[in-house]
Design a protein that fits this description.
Blueprint lengths: L1 H34 L1
């Protein structure tokens, strides 16, 4: 869900605001989910 939201933000043009931040958030969430 979080990844889908991130993709939506990127599609809306959030990439201009800073995709690096979104990518980091997504990666952090994936890692946390993986540990569990």
């Amino acid at each position: 869900s979080s990844i889908e939201d991130a993709e939506k933000f990127i599609e809306l043009g959030a990439s201009r605001l800073g995709t690096s931040r979104i990518v980091k958030i997504v990666k952090n969430q994936s890692v946390e989910e993986g540990t569990y």
